Amino acid sequence: MAEDNLPDDFDVIVLGTGFPESVVAASLSRVGLKVLHLDRNDYYSGQWATFTFDSLLKWIELNQGETHGGASDESGAHNKEPPSLESGTFSVPVPSHSNTVSNIVVRSYFSEKKQEQEFGLSGSKEDSTLETAASFSEAWKSVETKEVKPVPSGENDPSKVITGAEGSGNEAEGSVDRPSDDSHEKLDTSDLNSTSSPTQLEESNETPLSEEKVSDKDFKENHDEELPTVTDSRDGQELSSLSQPRHRSEKKPAICPDMTYDDLKPYWRRFNIDISPKLLFSRGPLVEALISANISHYAEFKTVTRILTYMDRQVEEVPCSRADVFSSNAISVVEKRMLMKFLTFCLDFEQQQEQYEGHENKPYVEFLQSRRLTPNLQHFIIHAIAMVKPETATVIGLKATQSFLQSLGRYGNTPFIWPLYGAGELPQAFCRMCAVFGGLYCLRRSASEITISKENGKCTGVISENQLLKCKWLIMEHSYVPNIYKKECCQFVSRGVFITSSSLKISKEECVSVLSVPPSLEGEEPVRVIQLGSASMASPNGLYVVHLVSKGVTSAKDDLEATANKLFHFPSEAGNLHSDKPTVLWSLYFNQFIPDSSCVVDLPSNVHALSLPGLSLGFGEALQQAKEVFEKICPNEEFLQPVPNPEDIILDDFLQDPNHNTPQTDLANPQNDDIIDGGEGRALHEQAEGGDGGDGVDSQSVEEKNESGTGATSSEPQEHLANE
């Protein structure tokens, strides 16, 4: 758009708003570099995004319609009249589509009409062209003919320039619903593990495995070893907004034999469904980064309340803390002693190398057998605690076990926390930090070409909508990498998303659960399961969203269907919704490519390609990659320098002119909680500083906002970020 051209010179241009790109953009903006952040989508977070149900359907349709290969992308780029290139440079086309998702299969178990209105059986149907999704709205009628509709761009200009001075940028179509900005009701923080009260990211009253007292009378007399205390010098600074909205009061969808899409339609915007769900370790690098950068109030979190595993054809709860171990009926008294002794060893196994000498590169299961652990304990340790394969090298297995144990007890009874409204909130938090320090944002705008110097082979800039934008560094998500720099990628993740009528394991309180399902046959891959309910803001009250993730072998459906059949009941016909297992109401399978560094070759030295979400449970690998890129660009600067607190800001102009009015910005006006927090919670260090917790959000205001379609799910993306 000629009338709204961007500035034409930047230090860094970033393509894609996925997690690692957003972290790099935030860290570079924080040290004073001029950053432009573009995304071809009309929502933030890219392949890490979270969608409401209607937005997920649009994402499915768009990705099913993406048959564009590299050739068509490149020819499309040359259809436009390019700007004049500088002497001694040439251009390379950038793909206009991501092409990272394949093998999409959607299946519905709803009746399309009420039974009394049907003239024949309307059973569930499987349709990779979204025929079953057509009944969601009139907009889907053309899907049966594989007509690809563009995502609506809204009434406003699709390429609005966003600066750090233009409000809150965490909201765009397809991203998640958030609490409304005018909600400031204090939330109770009395119970970290309660699903009916909000949770604050503070030190949990739950004693970790290393500190909890033994209460098992049958075992206490013979138990004389104590686990060493896990300490953390950073624990004085805690995330104080690990919170959840108070329990929703709305009626849950009526689960009945003739339930239709129309019955679910009023609840579409109460779903927040991840396409790449991931957890945070309580003492992991991302939690530490959020705290040290002073941006943890940009998101809210909930503790994962239980770890489950699948054994003997049923779902069992895994004991995590010492109290859980000794109260568990799943293991015998003798096994309890053996387990505690082994876990004690794992906490500081590096100092006891003689105990695993010779087993370093041997399978972990062999090492456990050498310790004379029973098959029952081997299952718990491998599949539920370390979450590795039996053939994993012993050193890797011990490190995974240690990481699990070190994060216990910080915020709850498990080592994990989950971001409310989905993992897509985290890239947006870093985008907001980038914008606070002057980063420029523009959605629905990408680069059609990158320009390369013939003299030194470095990137000199990009061409975006016929405008030449110069830069010293170019950072991009892998899907933006020009085809001439790509090698064929054969690695992918198989993902499944299920909406179910009940929990995998019924409990008194609604739980966020992580389940490990070991492979049934040799050669199969283990499957990781994450179950989310309304307390995590992932679904309406009474329904659950369950994610299945596994390493891809064939197609997602083939890789995950056997596990899904173990866990869920799939109605054979419409109306057959009754079973002891959770009943599946809707399902989605898809594969997602996971290219690594070997899939990119001969990139210019000042261009960095960042990875897509992989198979890992957490964000550690992506965060480390972002840090490495930052250190190459700014080797002498601190990664993710803290955002200053409002009270620490010194306004030079104010000091020079006492009569000058204080600028009414967020940082100069810390009482304006609506802007500072974006309605998402208070500053996260209040607990450490003696504060009384965080301002929460009234659940009714969330419902009203979701129902009205404003905020994150409005028809037109709100392309602005808060300038704190």
Provide the residue-averaged pLDDT.
74
Give the CA-CA distance, first to last residue.
29 Å
Let me know the number of strands. Answer: 22
Largest sheet, if any? 9 strands, mixed
Number of helices: 17
Gyration radius (Cα, Å) is 26 Å
Q: Major sheet: order of its strands?
A: 6-5-21-17-20-19-18-10-11
Written description of the protein model:
- The protein is α+β, with helices and mostly antiparallel strands and 724 residues long.
- Helices cover 22% and strands 16% of the residues.
- It contains 17 helices and 22 strands.
- The chain has helices spanning 19-30, 53-65, 70-78, 217-220, 261-264, 285-292, 322-327, 333-347, 364-370, 375-386, 394-406, 425-436, 556-567, 620-633, 652-656, 673-677, 699-708, and strands at 9-15, 35-39, 50-51, 89-93, 101-108, 125-127, 273-274, 280-281, 301-303, 306-311, 314-317, 416-419, 440-443, 449-453, 459-464, 467-477, 492-500, 513-517, 527-532, 544-551, 584-593, 607-610.
- Strands 6-5-21-17-20-19-18-10-11 form a 9-stranded mixed sheet, with helices on both faces.
- Helix 1 (19-30) packs parallel to helix 14, helix 9 crosses helix 11 and helix 10 (375-386) packs across helix 11 (394-406).
- The radius of gyration is 26 Å and the shape is globular.
- The chain starts with 8 loop residues before the first strand and ends in a 16-residue tail after the last helix.
- 51% of the residues are buried.
- GO terms for molecular function: GDP-dissociation inhibitor activity; GTPase activator activity.
- InterPro entries: FAD/NAD-bd_sf (IPR036188), GDP_dissociation_inhibitor (IPR018203), Rab_escort (IPR001738).
- Pfam families: GDI.
